[in-house]
Amino acid sequence: MKYTGSCLCKQITFEVDSFQKSFGHCHCKMCQKFHGAAFSTFIEVKKSELNWLSGGALLKEYRAENDAIRTFCSCCGSSLLFESTYNRSENTIEIALALFDSIEVVHADAHIYTESKAPWFDINDTLPQYRQYRR
Ligand SMILES: [Zn+2]
Ligand SMILES: [Zn+2]
User: Fold this and answer.
1) Separation of 45 CA from ligand 2 center, angstroms?
2) Longest Cα–Cα distance in the chain
3) Measured between alpha carbons, how far is 58 from 60 in angstroms, rounded to an integer?
4) What is the per-residue pLDDT across 1-26, written as a single tens digit (0 to 9) for each?
5) Which ligand gives the minimal distance to the CA of 5?
6) Do 30 and 81 meet the contact criterion of CB atoms below 8 Å apart?
7) Over 90: is that where the pLDDT of 98 sits?
8) Nearest ligand to residue 130 Cα
9) How far is the CA of 92 from the centre of ligand 1 (A)?
10) Side-chain half-sphere of 119: how many Cα atoms within 13 Å?
11) From ligand 2's centre to the CA of 106, what distance in Å?
12) What count of other Cβ atoms lies within 10 Å of the Cβ of residue 34?
C-alpha cells in the first residue's frame, strides 16, 4: 500500500509505504509558528519508506535553535517535515499528516505540549493530554 501526498502548489509529491506507531497533535510554540496554526500533526515514517516523486529541488530546510530541522516547500511555503535528534538516531522523519491526499488508516491518540496550547483553541476530545512530550 502506498500513501501519496503533496505540498500546496503540488510541485513536491511523495509516497510513503507505512507509518510508525502512534502520533499526537503537537501544541508546542515552534509547531504553531511553523504551521501558522493552533497545532501540528506529524506522523513518523522510516526514512527508507519515504520516496520523493517530484519537486525534490524545492525542499528547503530550516534548522531551529533546538537542532530540529523543519523542511518546507520553497515555492508555496507548505510545512512538510520535522526531524529531531531522536529522529536522526532512529533513522526516521516526521511528515505533516495533512499533506496526504487521502488517509483513513491512522488516528491521533494524544495531545502533546499542551503547556503552550493556543488560548484561543479548545481541546474538546477525550484523547490524553501531555504537558510536554510523552516519550
Ligand atoms: Zn509547494
Ligand atoms: Zn511541536
Assistant:
1) 16
2) 41
3) 6
4) 899 999 999 999 999 999 987 899 99
5) 1
6) no
7) yes
8) 2
9) 22
10) 0
11) 19
12) 21
Q: What pLDDT does 135 receive?
A: 61
| Contact of 16 with 80, CB cutoff 8 Å | no
Output DSSP code: residue 114.
G
The stretch 50-70 carries a mean pLDDT of: 96
* Cβ(44)–Cβ(87) below 8 Å: yes
Contact predicate 16/101, CB 8 Å: no
Place of cell 509529491: 13
d(CA 19, CA 12): 20
Q: How confident is the model at residue 50 (pLDDT cuts 50, 70, 90)?
A: very high
CA-CA distance, 111 to 23, in Å (whole number)? 9
pTM (predicted TM-score): 0.93
Q: Do 59 and 12 touch, CB atoms closer than 8 A?
A: yes
Report residue 8: phi and psi, to 5°: -65, -45
Structural domains for the chain: 3-21+40-107 (2.170.150.70)
Q: Find the 110 Cα to ligand 2 centroid distance in Å.
A: 13
Distance of CA 88 to the CA centre of its chain: 15
